[in-house]
Structures are given as structure tokens and as C-alpha cells.
Write a structure and sequence with these properties.
The structure holds 2 protein chains of 2 kinds. By secondary structure, chain A is an alpha/beta fold. Chain A has 11 helices and 10 strands. Chain B is an alpha/beta fold. In chain B, 24% of the residues lie in helices and 24% in strands. The chains are: A alpha/beta, B alpha/beta. At the A-B interface, strand 8, strand 9 and helix 10 of A face strand 2 of B.
Chain lengths: 307, 703
């Protein structure tokens, strides 16, 4: 078992090495081109990747549930397996993905040449591009302390373009508040689908549990992508400086080396709490640092989509 | 020990600065924006606060350096018992500034000026008095230095005598210059002697007609001292009408253009202008209407050469000091040019045909061109009267001797090597100078196509006129053949141009006082395009101009202008309008004695050099006799005393004198320099010590 996990890890590592360095990718100005580069890289890689079996073809069948049109049941399969599956046509949209993107001030932090927000935007664009190639419906909600922009999920010709335009507009920047976008998602999304929350998730997790619970209860698949900067994980600043909070503007003078241990302890506690919460609610949790190739994020997304 | 500026001693407080800097808590300055501040504990960083002083020696050095600097700023000095303060009575100075320009010649102005001066001297009593006159410059009658001596009855009497001997001159008025110079003199006096008279105890008594033509522009660049006051004594005549004459031009036909300027306060507007010979009656009168404060330009009838007219006279105004304009038409010169060449007889094949046409007669010169062929009779003309000698054929022995003699006497010879025969003559002409008979090589050059002039020396007078880029193109000038000339080293020569960067084309050889210009080519169309080019006539005339006897001085000057005499007029006699003779020594080249208007004549002992005549006239500004607005002077910063006002009456307070004394004492001792030097040495020592300590600490850390 252990050896399989190690092998998988090795393969993952190998894949990472073949992937595009995010720093290079971020230098591409067009968001669409960025997304295209990631998707096509992954797509080409899929033929020999271990994720082959989870690609879109396998989701053509779905278990029959009450309310489904019986005309779509694959009777041959039912005969073979004694279970009822619904056969989907290729042309039909089978997935409705809602991306909730956090563009609050804290996402503006960067220790690399690009911000967390840039990375998150590219990730969202990648998902949208991928979904559009799959003819799946995708929607976007941009939020900070309240819902900032909404592109309802659908599969139309101009959908990708609409999403990209919303992604490219400059951030307004303020506090993070998960309640409002999640509430918005609960209230507006009627059709079951995949809800993807992209955020740094560094703010208090007070209502997150409740809202994720609601979403799950409504039958949505929820994936949580936590975007963190490497510096946020390691606090590897060398000089004593005045640290100013991006969201609250609070200032403290600090020697980072002295504060490092305590910081990491607190951060890990927070992350563990978040992971526990996700586990409890059956939410897919992915932690991405901004130096991770975006293809990793896309693979994670594919996994979630298949689940 | 005392301090000149003890307030600076408060700077001692700054000694605390190094200690404070040493102990100060260093707050981080850089601000870092961070996203996850809530995971950071608010724990103040450990700063490098130092509660105890580590390097006492460094601190001591720094503090001493600061102390020394503070002390230097406070200007310390040692009090000297010798220089005890004495209470001397304040001395006052009166500077009498009398206008002696030509406009003071009007009516009784000068007598009034002297009376006024007399009055002021009487009033001055015990005050120190200096007297200056001014026109276009400042002249001391009794200088400031003399004035500082104590006034005695005898000295005052002496001064009065000196004053009576003064007369107004003919120069223009530069009031600005006079005032600024006096003010500068006074400022220098105060600066050099701080215990002496203060500026507020000096006053300038200005006696002048204060005419509008006075120059005051010098005051614009001068910052007039606040304390120095001027009392203006403005003299006026009852009859105010005055007009003046100015010669604008005297053209080639000797027709003068004259401007008539009428003063702004004139009563008259109708004037008569006429020519006049020395003392005879005016001729060819002309009526001119000039409104007051304006000027009119008229063209007088042309002068006939035989008329001997020397003056233009204006009449109709009250004052005649500026009513005479002296004229000196340029005199025609007679030039003789001798050409040793084959006579032209209408053929364009000979150099003579072109040389003859290169020297046309002009209104200023009459040219006599003599061509002497190989068979012509000997010329009967004195060598000294030849202005240019051109050689384009082989010369006989007699002719060679004549050329050599001519060169020795300062003549100019143009030698054209237009063929092999003529080239042979160059050897005897040059060999006489050097008994060693140097070998001069000449040979015909075989040219493939044509040769061009290069390496032209445009700084030489012969080529100077072609210096401008539009004239300096000699590439259109082609030479079909020429002679190669090789001059030995011992003949001093200057190559003015070469053919194709190689062989000399034009060479200048100085022989005695004369100039020999050798052209290694001929100018007829058979040999080159030179004679047909636009360069030919100007260049030949430039060579003629090399003759120093022909340099003419301009013929019109204004009073006070310096005149540079040509080299040929060394050791000259100058006859002035007053028929007195001025002898110039040979070293003197400039004439400063143009002190009055009139006609001047410069003659030298040499008969062959023609006499130079020139006219000197008054500056036209002097005719502008309307009074100047006093506001103009005030606007330039000059402090004028109102009638009845006196200069600072109270003696300067003892404090001021004491301060002046102390300042002088401090300036003599200059202790601050030493203090600054020691402070710098301390800082240097501190730097070295600090470096040593840092090195030592880091070495310990590494270990």
C-alpha cells in the first residue's frame, strides 16, 4: 500500500516537473491564453496519465434516481449489472460548475512576482476553459466582503468570454466574508452541481461550517481550493519590519525569525481545523501554494468532477 | 578669551547629539504588507537599544569635535590691552563730484559749478574733503587718500587754487560710471579700515547740469550702498535751446549724411546747416525743421574734391559748443604697380593681359600699371614709390638688383613661375640674401590630367577673404602644368597652398622687410584656370594689400576714442587742432590724445608714407541737454538727499565702534581656523578608531 502511494507520489512529482512553471505562465498577459496553456498541457498529458479513467467519457453514465426520465436508462447495462444507469448523450451538458472566487485584499499578497489573486484567477480561468471545451456549464461568483460579480452558470457560446472578462477586472479589495457568496450560492443554485470555492481561507472560519453543510445538503459537490503564498506558510522574511495587515490595516513591528515558530503553529492549527471541517462535511480540500504548477490544480479539479 | 559671536555657544547643546544617537532605539522603518497578521503574535521585536555606552573614547572624540566646531563658530579671540577703545570724534567726509563734460561749456554753467564747489568747501569746515571731476571717466583733483589727512587752512587754499585751474573737457558724460566708482572707492576704504570713517558719515556732493544725455547704465549692475547719500546740485542755464550734429556717413562721393538732434527743452525748432571752410563764411546753407526732443537726418550736397570743406556748421540754437562737425573725406591714393613681363598687346596668351585688369581704379585709388618687357627701356621711377612688383619673365642682372633692393626696403613682390625661363630668375633673387647660394630646384612637373590646390592656409592675409565656407571652394580651379619648387631649409618660408597635398603652389618668403610671394604656376588659360576664376582679382589685390604703406586708418572718430596707428606710422608726429605737435615714440601705436574735436594729421619722418588725416567730433549724447528726470537716478538705487536733509547727525554709538574694533581683532587672530583644523583631525582620528574597533569585534566574532 505504502509502495503504491510512494509510486503515485513519484509519478505526481514527475508530472509536476513536466508542467509549466507558474512564474513563466503568469508572464502571459492574456488570461485565456494562460488557461489554454494549462488545459492543453494537461489534456495532452491525459493519454498517459494515471487519471485517464476519470476523464469525461466515464461520466456519461449516471445512476438512476427518482425523477429521472426512464427513457434515458441504459437497459443493456442494467441487464449486465442489474443496476440502473442513465445514459447521457455527449452533446448534453452534464455538469454545472459554480466557481466562487475570493478577491479580497488578502489575496493581493505576494512574495513571488505575482499575487495570490493572479494565481487564483488563472486557476478559475483554467477551470472555465476546460469546462467550455467539455461543453459543461460554468458560472462565476467573485466576492470579497460581499458578492461583487455574478456570471450565472450556463453553457453558451460566449460564456467563457464573459467569465474571463469578469476575471480580468481589477480587484476592489476589502475584507473576506464567506457567508455572503455561500449564501448566494445556496439561494440561487437550484440544479445540483459542483461548487468550487477558491480563496486563501485565512479569515476566521465561523460560518463556513454551516454554509458548507447547507451546500452539501442541497446535493452539491463542493471543492475548496486554498491558495497560499509560500511566504505565508514559512514566514521566511529575514528583516525586522513593520507588518501591515492587507485587510484591516493593522500594524505591528515584528522580528519574523523570532515569531516564525509561533506563527507556524497557529497557522497549522487553522489549517487543520479547516481540513477537519472539510472532512466532516465531505468537501474536497486542496491546498495550493502559488508556486505549484496550475496543472496540479486542474488534476485535482478533474478528480473532484469525477467523484 | 572672548567671543565675537557668543550666541553660537548655545550650539554646545549639540554635544548631546552623539550620545543621543548612541542610545536611541532603532525602530524598523520598512513596512511589509502581509495577509495573515492574525496568526502573528503582537510581540515587539528585539531592537538594538543600548543602555550603556560601550566606546567611551569614540564618544569623547565626537563630543570634542562638536565642541571645537561650536567654539570656531563663536569666533574666539584674545583681548589685547594695546587695543583699548578710544573715543575719537567722528570724522565726516564730503566727496565733491564735478561734471566736466563738454555740455558744461554752455553759458555760465562752469563758473556756477566752481562757485557751488567753493561754497560746499566752505560749509564743510573741518570735514574731510575729496574732489573729483568726471566726464566719460573719473579724474581725481584731490583723491580720497589725500582727504584723510587733517584739513589745514593751507590745504584748503591749495585746493581752491586747484579748482580754479579746472576747465570742462570735450568728453561725453558717464554719470553712472562716476557714481559707481566713487561708491566702490568708499566701500573699499570702509572695508580696509573698519575703525575709520563709516559709510553713513560720507556724502557725495554732485555738481552737474544733469543732462538727459548722461550715461547711467553702469548703475544698473551696481548695488548702491544704503548708507551712502548723494546731494544733487543741478545747474541750469536760462537759455535752453540746443541742437547738435552727428555725422552718420560720408559716402564714396564725399556726400555726408548728417543727423540733427534737438534737445527736449529747446525753444527753437528751425535750424540752419551749412558747409564752412576754416574761418570763412558758411556756404550752401540748408534750413532744417527739427521738433523739440526729436532728430532729423539730412543728406548734404556732395563735396567737390577741390572745395577743401572741413566743417559742417549748425546755427539757430543758444549754445554753440556742439554746433561744429568736422569732416575728413577719405583721400585718394595713387598706386604704382610694375610688371616685369611680356607686354600683352591684346593677346590673352600673356600674363600681363590679366594682371593689368586685376587692379581697376576706384574712388579711393588711382592705379598706374607699368609693364616692362625684356626690350623696354629702363623705368624712371623711384623704388620707394612702387606698391607692387609682379615678375612673370626672366630678369636681367640690373632688374634683379632692383627687385632685391625693393624687397629690402619692405616691398611686395609677386613672382609667377609661368615657364622654365622665368623660374630661373628665382635663384638670383633669393641667393643674394644668403651668400652661401643655396640650391633652389625648379623643374616642370608632368601632370596626368590636372592639379588642384590643397592645404590652403586660410589664416594668411592672402587667403583670409576666402575663409567663409561659401568662398573656400578651390576645387573648381584646375592647373594644367606647374613648376616643382624645392626651397632649402635655410630660407625661411611659409607654404600657403600645395598641389594635391604634395608640391608647393604658393610660397611666402620674407626677405628683409619685404614679402616675396611665389606662385609656382602661371595664370594664363594655357597654364591654368586661375586668371579666369573669381579668385584671381581678390587674391592679387590682397597681395597688393600686403604693402604696409597702404593700410589706412578710419577717418572719423569721436572724442576720447583710442586710435591705433598702422605699423608704417612708427615714430609719428601728430598735429592737433590747436596746432600743437605730439611726438609719438616708435613703441607707441595708440593715440589717446583725441581730447578735443577737430582735424588731426599724422605724419612720419618717411616721405613715401602718406600723411594720415582724421576728424574727431563730439559725442552726440552731449547735445541732449534737457534735464534728466531725478526719478531715473533714484530708480537705479542711488540715495538722494532731499534739500535740507543732512546725513546721519548722531555720532555712531560706542557699541558700533567697539564691535568694529573687536571684529578687526578677531580677523587678525583668526583662531577659528585652528579650531576647525583640530576638529577635523579629531573626526579623522574617530573614523580610524571606529574602523579599528569594528574590525576587532568582527574578528572576535569569527573566531
Amino acid at each position: 500500500m505504502k509502495s503504491i502511494a510512494a509510486q503515485k507520489n513519484y509519478q505526481n512529482q514527475k508530472l509536476v516537473s513536466q508542467r509549466i512553471d507558474p512564474a513563466c505562465l503568469m508572464r502571459i498577459k492574456s488570461l485565456e491564453l494562460r488557461a489554454k496553456s494549462v488545459v492543453e498541457g494537461t489534456w495532452n498529458g491525459l493519454h498517459r496519465s494515471p487519471y485517464h479513467g476519470f476523464s469525461v467519457e466515464f461520466t456519461e453514465y449516471r445512476e438512476y434516481s427518482t425523477g429521472d426520465d426512464p427513457r434515458h436508462i441504459d437497459w443493456k447495462l442494467a441487464a449486465r449489472t442489474n443496476q440502473h444507469f442513465i445514459k447521457r448523450f455527449e452533446e448534453e451538458t452534464n455538469l454545472c460548475c459554480h466557481m466562487l472566487l475570493d478577491l479580497s485584499s488578502s489575496m493581493q499578497f505576494h512574495s513571488l512576482s505575482y499575487t495570490k489573486a493572479d494565481y487564483a484567477k488563472t486557476l478559475a480561468a483554467t477551470f472555465a476553459y476546460f469546462l467550455s471545451t467539455q461543453r459543461d456549464a460554468s458560472g462565476l461568483v467573485i466576492f470579497d466582503e460581499e458578492v461583487d460579480a455574478v456570471v450565472p452558470a450556463r453553457f453558451t457560446r460566449g460564456q467563457l468570454r464573459r467569465i474571463l472578462i469578469e476575471l480580468e477586472r481589477p480587484p476592489r479589495g476589502s475584507h473576506t466574508n464567506f457567508a455572503s457568496p455561500l449564501k448566494h450560492a445556496i439561494e440561487t443554485i437550484k440544479k445540483r452541481g459542483l461548487v468550487v470555492l477558491i480563496s486563501d481561507l485565512l479569515s476566521p472560519l465561523d460560518d463556513l461550517n454551516t454554509h458548507l453543510g447547507y451546500l452539501r445538503a442541497k446535493g452539491h459537490e463542493v471543492a475548496l481550493f486554498q491558495i497560499l503564498d509560500p511566504a505565508e506558510i514559512h514566514l521566511n522574511f529575514s528583516e525586522t519590519a513593520i507588518f501591515e495587515d492587507l485587510e484591516s490595516g493593522e500594524r505591528i513591528a515584528l522580528n519574523p525569525k523570532a515569531a516564525q515558530a509561533n506563527y507556524q503553529r497557529q497557522l497549522n492549527a487553522h489549517l487543520e481545523m479547516l481540513q477537519g471541517l472539510c472532512r466532516k462535511q465531505g468537501v474536497h480540500y486542496h491546498k495550493l501554494t502559488t508556486d505549484t504548477p496550475l496543472e496540479v490544480g486542474l488534476s485535482d479539479f478533474l478528480t473532484d468532477r469525477a467523484a | 578669551m572672548s567671543f565675537l559671536t557668543p550666541l553660537y555657544l548655545f550650539g554646545i547643546i549639540t554635544v548631546g547629539l552623539p550620545i543621543l544617537l548612541h542610545l536611541v532605539r532603532h525602530q524598523p522603518k520598512n513596512v511589509l504588507l502581509f495577509s495573515a497578521l492574525r496568526f502573528l503574535e503582537h510581540k515587539p521585536p528585539q531592537t538594538n537599544r543600548k543602555n550603556k555606552i560601550e566606546n567611551w573614547l569614540l564618544l569623547l572624540l565626537r563630543a570634542t569635535a562638536v565642541l571645537l566646531l561650536v567654539a570656531a563658530f563663536a569666533r574666539p579671540f584674545f583681548k589685547n590691552t594695546d587695543l583699548e577703545l578710544t573715543t575719537t570724534a567722528t570724522t565726516r567726509q564730503t566727496i565733491l563730484l564735478i561734471d566736466a563734460s563738454s555740455s558744461m561749456r554752455r553759458g555760465t554753467l562752469w563758473t556756477e559749478a566752481l562757485q557751488k564747489a567753493e561754497e560746499i568747501i566752505k560749509q564743510a569746515g573741518q570735514n574731510q574733503i575729496a574732489v573729483y571731476t568726471f566726464d566719460s571717466g573719473l579724474t581725481a583733483v584731490k583723491a580720497l587718500k589725500e582727504a584723510t589727512q587733517t584739513e589745514s587752512e593751507h590745504a584748503t587754499q591749495n585746493l581752491r587754487e586747484r579748482l580754479t585751474k579746472l576747465t570742462p573737457g570735450w568728453n561725453a558724460t558717464d554719470l553712472g560710471l562716476a557714481l559707481t566708482e566713487i561708491a566702490s572707492l568708499l566701500q573699499q576704504q570702509v572695508a580696509s579700515d573698519p575703525t575709520g570713517t563709516l559709510l553713513q558719515n560720507s556724502k557725495i556732493e554732485l555738481i552737474t547740469d544733469f543732462q538727459a544725455g548722461s550715461q547711467i547704465s553702469a548703475l544698473t549692475d551696481f548695488s548702491w550702498p544704503e548708507e551712502l547719500k548723494v546731494r544733487l546740485h543741478q545747474l541750469q542755464t536760462k537759455a535752453t535751446s540746443n541742437a547738435g550734429l552727428q555725422l552718420l556717413s560720408l559716402d564714396e562721393q564725399s556726400q555726408p549724411t548728417v543727423r540733427i538732434v534737438n534737445a527736449a527743452d529747446s525753444q527753437q525748432e528751425q535750424f540752419t546747416v551749412a558747409y564752412q571752410q576754416h574761418a570763412s563764411k558758411p556756404e550752401i546753407t540748408q534750413q532744417v525743421y527739427v521738433p523739440r526732443g526729436q532728430s532729423r537726418v539730412i543728406r548734404m550736397p556732395a563735396l567737390e574734391p577741390q572745395q577743401q570743406i572741413t566743417q559742417i556748421v549748425l546755427s539757430g540754437d543758444d549754445h554753440d559748443f556742439d554746433n561744429r562737425l568736422y569732416l575728413q573725406p577719405r583721400e585718394k591714393s595713387n598706386l604704382t604697380i610694375v610688371h616685369y613681363g611680356t607686354p600683352a598687346s591684346g593677346s590673352t596668351e600673356t600674363p600681363d593681359y590679366f594682371a593689368k585688369r586685376a587692379f581697376p581704379a576706384t574712388p579711393h585709388r588711382e592705379v598706374e600699371f607699368l609693364t616692362i618687357g625684356p626690350d623696354s627701356p629702363q623705368i624712371l621711377i623711384a623704388v620707394a614709390k612702387i606698391h607692387l612688383l609682379i615678375i612673370s619673365r626672366e630678369l636681367s642682372a640690373d632688374e634683379t638688383a632692383l627687385v632685391k633692393r625693393y624687397l629690402q626696403q619692405g616691398g611686395v613682390v609677386l613672382f609667377s613661375m609661368n615657364d622654365v625661363n622665368s623660374s630661373r630668375t628665382l635663384q638670383p633673387v633669393l641667393s643674394a640674401e644668403n651668400n652661401s647660394a643655396p640650391q633652389i630646384l625648379t623643374e616642370t612637373v608632368d601632370i596626368n590630367g590636372y592639379a588642384l590646390l590643397t592645404n590652403i592656409d586660410f589664416d594668411h592675409p592672402v587667403f583670409q577673404m576666402f575663409q567663409a565656407p561659401e568662398y573656400s571652394d578651390f576645387t573648381q580651379l584646375k592647373f594644367w602644368n606647374y613648376q616643382r619648387l624645392t626651397l632649402p631649409e635655410n630660407i625661411p618660408h611659409q607654404i600657403l597652398a600645395r598641389f594635391d597635398h604634395e608640391n608647393p603652389a604658393i610660397v611666402n618668403v620674407s626677405i628683409g622687410e619685404g614679402q616675396l610671394i611665389v606662385m609656382t604656376f602661371g595664370w594664363t588659360p594655357r597654364e591654368s584656370q586661375f586668371a579666369l576664376s573669381t579668385k584671381f582679382v581678390p587674391m592679387l589685390n590682397a597681395i597688393l594689400g600686403q604693402n604696409t604703406k597702404l593700410t589706412a586708418v578710419p577717418s572719423q572718430f569721436t572724442v576720447g576714442e583710442k586710435i591705433k596707428l598702422p605699423d608704417s606710422l612708427k615714430a609719428a608726429n601728430i598735429s592737433t587742432p590747436e596746432t600743437t605737435l605730439i611726438q609719438l615714440t616708435s613703441a607707441q601705436q595708440t593715440l589717446k590724445e583725441t581730447i578735443q574735436p577737430g582735424l588731426y594729421q599724422v605724419t612720419s619722418g618717411d616721405e613715401t608714407v602718406p600723411a594720415q588725416k582724421f576728424a574727431v567730433n563730439l559725442a552726440i549724447e552731449e547735445s541732449n541737454t534737457a534735464p534728466l528726470a531725478i526719478e531715473k537716478l533714484e530708480s537705479l538705487g542711488v540715495r538722494l538727499l532731499q534739500p535740507g536733509e543732512t546725513t546721519a547727525a548722531s555720532p555712531p554709538p560706542a557699541d558700533t565702534r567697539r564691535q568694529a574694533l573687536l571684529r578687526e581683532l578677531e580677523q587678525k587672530q583668526k583662531l577659528w581656523r585652528w579650531l576647525i583644523l583640530v576638529a577635523l583631525a579629531m573626526l579623522g582620528l574617530e573614523t580610524v578608531l571606529a574602523k579599528w574597533i569594528t574590525g576587532k569585534t568582527s574578528a572576535t566574532r569569527k573566531a
